Amino acid sequence: MSRSLSGLLLPTLVLVCLLEPRIVKSENILGIFSYTFGSSYLLIEPYLRHLVQRGHQLTIISAVTHLPHIEGAHHIRVARLDQQMQDLLDYDYEFELSKWMEAQFVSDYFFNCSKFILEDPGVQELLLNKSAEYSMVILEAAHTDALYGFAQHFNAPLVGLAAFGSAWNIDFLAGNSAPSVYEPMSALGYSPGLSLLEKWYNLIFITEERLVERFVYLPRQIDLYKKYFSEGAGSLHEIRRRFSLILINQHFSLGRVRSNVPNLVEVAGMHLDAPPEPLDDELRAFIEGAEHGVIYFSMGLQMLDKWLPPGLPELMINSFKRLKQRVIWKRLDKTIANNTRNVYVSGLLPQREILNHPNVKLFITHGGVLSIIEAAHYAVPILCLPLFFDQFQNTKRMEKMGVARSLDITDISQEVVLQAIGDMLNTSSYKQRALDLSGRFHDQPMSPIDTAVWWTEYVLRHKGADHMRIAEQEMSLMQYYNVDIISVLFGRIGFTALIVIVLAWKLVSFATRNLEYRFNLPMVR
Fold it and tell me: Which end of the chain is more exposed for a tag (fewer CB within 10 A), N or C?
């Protein structure tokens, strides 16, 4: 018996070694997440759980309520982040924001996120603990720049998570020398960027965003950095350019093809590794009893009615009453569906399992990045009602691929809603293109979560993986933007153009004098 066991043990060990050739040692990792929205924690929770399962020792700084306890990790909970969320929910949001108002609002929000973390007693205790050592610091990539000081404080590589995908600011942090000119951060400046005029418009808008970042966002973050890490402003600018890795919540198959440098890695769908919540018996019966199919309507995890245009909920319920399909509506106030047989309303719904059901024919959504990814994953056509930030860009990409339509949420009627729903349900190409998109999205060499973990451990194995960063990261600003080349190029072109203009002027002058001499024309002075 012992011989048979020993005979089985050796092949098993060999198989394990072949399947897992790169077993890394356990490392201490610090994760700092200033998110106050629950949707962002949906993205990072599976990632953090996998790192713990791989044997790494995690210390996680986060809000109290949104990130569940992860067994094996040490949690430092910052209660004021939850208060920040409540303040945001209580904020009297104006539907029409100017560029300056939006910049001030976002600046205040992220300043408070950084401030609440840095002044938290548990975080301060960690910073003062001279025995604390970390091999990596993982945090939100954009706008909370003061928190980058943790990487310098612990002399650890810096890894970022871009929950809302990439834009020019993420390119800058990663040292990408081919940044996009068609993706401003703000939806206020978005246009598809297809024509030359649109490209110039976006370039101008991005330039304005750079100025806003430099003179509105950064100064307050620099002040926090100086206060809590006792370093000069110049060193923070250096830290901003030292990201070893940035994991981006996007994928090229979803219509966002970019020229990424090696330390920009696409991991869209990483949150899909978490097991979905099951359908309860009542909801399952409602879906499966729908003779003409089901439409799922959700405007996001934490959307409030006061953020919607006045009268929109009433418009939507009156539209749904006229449908032969059944509708599942994610909404806290259930009374809106009173005496409505074909509408099921609930504040908490298992979105992934709903989209995965074959009887669900259409997804009406705000166009948030996680909803877009889930719709693509489960091959469900989408009708978008974008409201904020990246939702407009997400919607345009899905429209371009033929899996979506969009409506202007500020100017719709029942007839417009019903016509859009009818067209999408009765046009087979929407479903076929959704199936094609889903096939492309699934066709990856590794799952998104495995990709994220592999590259994280790659940076750990190679002590920050400096070789992944493009050379421009170590260049001066003038070199980075190729100002020297541009100056030479345009200098030569300008000098040549000047010579051509002078010669042409001389030729015209010579011809004019000849005409004057021949026909005795008066000189024109």
Answer: C
Does the pLDDT of residue 484 top 60, yes or no?
Answer: no
Helix (H, G, I), strand (E, B) or coil at 450: helix
| Residues 463 and 509 grouped into a single domain | no
- Let me know if residue 12 belongs to a domain: no
Q: How many CB atoms lie within 10 A of CB 77?
A: 16
Per-residue 3-state assignment (H helix, E strand, C coil) for 300-341: CCCCCHHHCCCCHHHHHHHHHCCCCCEEEEECCCHHHHCCCC
- If phi over 0 gives left and psi between -120 and 50 gives alpha, with beta otherwise, what is residue 506? alpha
96 to 199, 309, 410: CA distances (angstroms): 24, 10, 10
Residues 147 and 99 in one domain: yes
Two tokens, residue 293: 């199919």
d(CA 206, CA 358): 42
Are 86 and 208 in a shared domain? Answer: yes
Over residues 395-405, the mean pLDDT reads: 93
**In this structure, which amino acid lies at residue 393?**
Q
Identity of the amino acid at 53: Q
Condensed to tens digits (0 to 9), the pLDDT of residues 274-286 reads 999 999 999 999 9
pLDDT in tens, 151-178: 999 999 999 999 888 888 888 888 876 6
CA distance 413 to 410: 10
Say how many domains are in the chain.
3
Domain that holds residue 490: 482-525
Within-domain flag for 259: yes
Q: What is the CATH number of the domain that holds 333?
A: 3.40.50.2000
Residues in the chain: 525
